[in-house]
Write a structure and sequence with these properties.
By secondary structure, the chain is mainly α. It starts with 8 loop residues before the first helix and ends with a helix. The chain is elongated and about 50 Å long. Helices cover 69% and strands 0% of the residues. It has a domain of 47 residues.
């Protein structure tokens, strides 16, 4: 997930406001770390007893999407 709309405007505004220019590689690592934390939370749910409810199906779909997106 990125707050920047893709044109760099948000990152430029941040740099203007703080005097700190965000490093793209660090932002990429932060996004990956966030995704890994989300994956860990969802995997934890499926490591314990679950009934296969509609919520489980939705969370599993989100888990699959997160794992698939790691290669992007």
């Amino acid at each position: 997930m990125s707050l920047d709309p893709g044109d760099g405007s948000l990152l430029a505004a941040y740099a203007d406001a703080t005097g700190v220019t965000p490093l793209p590689a660090v932002l990429d690592l932060y996004r990956i770390r966030w995704d890994l934390a989300d994956i860990a939370a969802r995997v934890s749910r499926f490591r314990h007893y679950h009934q296969g409810s509609l919520d489980d199906d939705k969370l599993f779909a989100l888990l699959r999407a997160l794992v698939s997106g790691l290669g992007d």
